[in-house]
């Protein structure tokens, strides 16, 4: 009898975990238009990252500084940072104008004025 109760309890637990939580699930983001826009050769992507060790070190330095910014969204923490020939390109969605500007300021402080192209996009609410 004890075994039947345990199995029944497990079934109830599993059903409870799969209950419909309407209104709490996030919808998948459709990146089709962005992916099509970025498919041309004019858009910098992580594939354009230089393999030069100084460039890779620069990306790591900027990434550490970005992660030190207080209260960044998870998107803000994961922006794309691409360097080549001393130039830095920032790409990806962020939560706000303030977040975009803070990340750009940190990158510019490390890469130098005029060496950062901030292409971060404010994510719609």
Provide a quick synopsis of the model.
This protein is of the alpha+beta class and about 120 residues long. It has 5 helices and 3 strands, in the order ααααββαβ.
Topology:
Layout: H1 2-17, H2 32-37, H3 53-67, H4 74-77, E1 80-84, E2 87-94, H5 97-111, E3 116-122
Parallel strand pairs: 2-3
Antiparallel strand pairs: 1-2
Mean pLDDT: 78
Stretches where pLDDT falls below 50 for ≥5 residues? 8-24
- Count of DSSP strands: 3
* N-end to C-end Cα span: 53 Å
CATH top level label of one domain: Alpha Beta
By CATH, the topology of one domain is Histidine-containing Protein, Chain: A
Tally of helical runs: 5
How much helical structure, as a percent, in the residues? 40-55%
Largest sheet, if any? 3 strands, mixed
**Biggest sheet: strands side by side, in what order?**
1-2-3
Q: Using the CA coordinates, give the radius of gyration.
A: 22 Å
Give the SSE string: HHHHEEHE
Broad structural category:
alpha+beta
- Under the CATH scheme, which architecture of one domain would be assigned? 2-Layer Sandwich
Q: Main traits of this protein?
A:
125 residues, alpha+beta, Histidine-containing Protein, Chain: A, globular
Task: Provide an overview of this structure.
The protein is about 45% helix and about 15% strand. The chain has helices at about 1-15, 30-35, 55-65, 75, 95-110; strands spanning about 80-85, 85-95, 115-120. It has a 3-stranded mixed sheet with strand order 1-2-3. Helix 3 (about 55-65) crosses helix 5 (about 95-110). The model is unreliable at about 10-25 (pLDDT under 50).
């Amino acid at each position: 009898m004890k075994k039947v109760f345990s199995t029944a309890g497990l079934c109830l637990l599993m059903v409870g975990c799969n209950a419909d939580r309407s209104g709490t699930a996030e919808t998948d983001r459709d990146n089709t238009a962005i992916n099509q826009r970025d498919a041309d050769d004019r858009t910098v992507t992580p594939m354009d990252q230089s393999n030069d060790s100084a460039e890779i070190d620069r990306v790591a330095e900027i990434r550490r500084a970005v992660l030190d910014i207080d209260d960044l969204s998870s998107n803000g923490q994961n922006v794309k940072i691409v360097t080549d020939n001393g130039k830095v390109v920032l790409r990806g969605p962020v939560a706000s104008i303030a977040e975009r500007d803070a990340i750009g300021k940190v990158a510019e402080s490390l890469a130098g004025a005029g060496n950062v192209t901030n292409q971060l996009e404010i994510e719609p609410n």
